[in-house]
Amino acid sequence: MSGSFKIFEYRNIPVFVHWTFSLLLLWVVGLGFMNNMALAEIAFGLGIILCLFVCVTLHEFGHALAGLRYGVPTQDIILSPIGGVARMNRIPEKPVQELIIALAGPMVNVIIVIVLLPLYFLLGGERLSMEEALNAYSEFNQPLLALIILNIFLIIFNMIPAFPMDGGRVLRSLLSFKFSRVKATLIAVRIGQFFAVLFAILAFYSNGIFLAVIAVFVFMAAQQEYKSVKVQDGLANALMGEIALKNYKTLAGSDTIGQAIQLAPFNQAPLFVVTNETEQLMGILEKAVLQKLQSEAFTDQSILPYVRSGFLVVNERDNLKNVLARFSEKNVYILVVNEQEVVVGYLDIPFINEYIKSL
Ligand SMILES: [Zn+2]
Predict the structure, then answer these.
(1) What average pLDDT does range 116-123 have in this prediction?
(2) Considering 9, 41, 60, 131, which one is annotated as catalytic?
(3) pTM above threshold 0.85
(4) DSSP H stretches of helix in 75-165
(5) What range does the domain containing 226 cover?
(6) Of 73, 86, 98, 354, which has the fewest CB atoms closer than 10 Å, so is most exposed?
(7) Are residues 211 and 319 in the same domain?
């Protein structure tokens, strides 16, 4: 993510902090000065925010380490003023794994509370009612209480059953025990959007700008999640034999450039498939290459020196999701073959892009 700086790395998971995080700290300092707070109080506020973000980082590592256990690597952890994100490359296949990974984050905050609570009482902290606690947590002399309440807030906030919060993932994984992943996601997304609308109504009546921002954010994140799961599902269901383009012409390895040029107007594809006598694939001849050979001098020459490889060959029963995982920059085309290794179609990048857009 641009504008982020790496602060450390653990178990090959780099932790980045986004530059806007410094704005949050500046805001705390500015607010302190505007309210004529003492320097020590401002420092306290900064300290609490830093401790809170240590808790957020530990929370994200809860997800990341649980993911590692199930072979789902975390690309990185990014901390920004609105919280942390552990970016995982994929959703684990089994619902129970997604459930554990989603719960592992909030569990870390539960553990932090369990550790800090006895410490708070040990250091002479008083037993407080809910109302007293909520009023006291911002008090200058109560850092432990502040952290305990902030962690409880993190647990509650994260367990709201709406994407992108952990609660949304918990809900989806539970629904996945009964429904397909797409169906489970759609139900979870609609429930999440219901909460978003609820937040918006609450925000309207309480003039809560923060709540309004969350409502919009949650509503959009839910839609995004559904789209991404639908695309993943669409890719997994797209069989190469069914979606491959078949508008190409075939040349024999013994053909001449002149013959290829004659056939070119009838070939809608950007390539010719070149095969031997037994229909086995020898390579491809690109139309763009052929165009450069349009002079008399080449007419009787063999096409073979211009036939090239550098494409990915896949089976007609492969799905697009697996194929894309194997596709690399050096492959311009994907050739689809049947069980007899005979070419039955091809795909190129513009087609794949259009196909993904249509999902
Ligand atoms: Zn989380």
Answers:
(1) 89
(2) 60
(3) no
(4) 95-122, 130-136, 143-158
(5) 161-237
(6) 354
(7) no
Q: What's the chain's average pLDDT?
A: 88
Tell me, in angstroms, the distance from the centre of ligand 1 to residue 103's CA. Answer: 8
* Strand residue runs (E) in 233-331: 249-252, 271-275, 281-286, 312-315
Per DSSP, what are the bridge partners of residue 79?
Answer: 17, 84
Angle between helix 181-206 and helix 166-176 axes, rounded to 10 deg: 150
Question: How many secondary structure helices (H) and strands (E) does the chain include?
Answer: 13, 10
Alpha-carbon torsion 308, 312, 315, 317, what sign? negative
60 is catalytic: yes
Note the pLDDT tens digit of each residue in 63-88: 999 999 998 999 899 988 878 888 88
Same domain, 5 and 154: yes
Say how many Å lie between the CA of residue 53 and the centre of ligand 1: 13
The tally of domains found in the chain comes to 3
For residue 110, the CA-to-ligand 1 centroid distance in Å is: 12
Q: Which of 186, 240, 222 is nearest to 355 (CA)?
A: 240
User: How close is the Cα of 106 to the center of ligand 1, in Å?
Assistant: 6
Q: How far is CA 41 from CA 167, 181, 295, in A?
A: 35, 49, 83
Q: For residue 197, how far is its CA from the centre of ligand 1 (angstroms)?
A: 22
Structure tokens at 13: 């998971």
